[in-house]
Specification:
five-stranded mixed beta sheet, 6 helices, about 20% strand, Muramoyl-pentapeptide Carboxypeptidase, domain 1, L,D-transpeptidase catalytic domain-like, six-stranded mixed beta sheet
């Protein structure tokens, strides 16, 4: 049952009557969802009320009938291979490699970082022929120059920061699977604390993994990049729902406290090649918006970009992909002004 501070959930997202698109059984069926009847719009702007009537159709039909528009600060939504690595924090991952080799031991190391992770990086750069200094564990000028040279030579995003992509290329990235908690699939028809059906990768209440440390307080969404997991938390701290997502390959979701500022029942990826259903934006970057949305569909043939089994792995260019049942829940929970804490 929802607490006094939680409004009842209607089981269907608000709709923008300007253009309504029924996500067909094929849209959710491929993803393993049991529910149909999600309504979405092709407009990439904020949802608004309007007294108009529109036809019901499938996502595939939109390709032929509607050209999506962008009205949010002239920026695209990030999902897809954008080939870049943005700034990251130095938070400990507490995970080694499966083969026992050394790792950077953090989400990133950069100029000024110190410790065993930096020494590991220096050893790896030396083995590749880009560093000839001492492995002293300090990320100074010589290490920065070696990192930038390595990134340039290997066609990586050149920023001098060793995050996921550079660390994977150097074989010093922690074992990601060890950070991801997979909960047992819920029983058919099981619901969360709002009474909304759980997806195969969702749980609720005491069955959900604990919240990350220092993940805020009050009513909020929490997204943990290392664990590729989201939580919806009530005002009194109850875990209404928790589920796996597929987040960014580039860790460009900046940690900290954000606010939902825009929502679209249907949007498109930065390259125009994917439909992004139930987009909820909470972060602006120099190259586009980051937010939560349902698993994307190819514009070309309406096929999904990934399977349910791939949730919990990093596959996007910035956004957090969700099973459609989780995306439906988020659409009801994360209204404009909702706090999003990224850890």
């Amino acid at each position: 049952m929802a607490g006094p501070s939680e409004p009842p959930y209607s089981g269907a997202p608000p709709t923008d009557p300007r253009r309504k698109l029924l996500l067909s059984a094929g849209l959710v069926g491929v993803l393993g969802a049991a529910a149909v009847g999600i309504v979405a719009t092709s407009d990439a702007g904020d949802s608004e009320a309007a007294d108009t009537t529109a036809a019901t159709t499938t996502i595939a039909a939109v390709v032929e009938s509607v050209a999506p528009t962008t009205t949010i600060a002239d920026l695209p939504d990030l999902d897809g291979d954008i080939g870049q690595n943005e700034a990251e924090t130095d938070d400990d991952l507490d995970a080694g490699r499966a083969d026992g080799g050394c790792t950077i031991g953090a989400l990133s190391v950069r100029y000024g970082s110190e410790g065993d992770g930096v020494a590991c990086l220096q050893d790896a750069l030396r083995a590749e022929g880009f560093y000839d200094g001492e492995s002293d564990g300090y990320f100074g000028d010589s290490t920065l120059a070696a990192v930038e040279a390595y990134q340039t030579d290997n066609d990586l995003f050149v920023d001098g920061v060793v995050g996921r992509e550079s660390a994977i290329d150097l074989d010093i990235w922690p074992d990601e699977e060890s950070l991801v908690v997979h909960t047992p699939p819920p029983a058919p028809g099981a619901t969360d604390l709002w009474g909304v059906e759980l997806s195969p990768v969702a749980s609720a209440g005491d069955d959900a993994p604990p919240l990350p440390e220092n993940s805020g307080s009050g009513r909020r969404v929490v997204y943990d990049r290392a664990g590729q997991r989201a939580w919806a938390v009530s005002e009194n701290g109850e875990i209404i729902r928790s589920w796996l997502v597929a987040g960014s390959k580039y860790s460009n979701e900046m940690p900290g406290t954000h606010t939902v500022y825009s929502r679209s029942e249907m949007s498109t990826a930065w390259n125009g090649q994917a439909w992004l259903p139930l987009m909820i934006r909470y972060q602006k970057t120099d190259i586009g918006h980051i937010g939560f949305h349902g698993i994307p569909r190819h514009v070309s043939d309406n096929s999904p970009y990934m399977t349910t089994d791939e949730l919990g792995t990093r596959l996007s260019g910035g956004c957090q992909r969700q099973h459609m049942l989780d995306a439906q829940f988020m659409w009801g929970f994360a209204t404009i002004g909702t706090t999003v804490v990224v850890t």
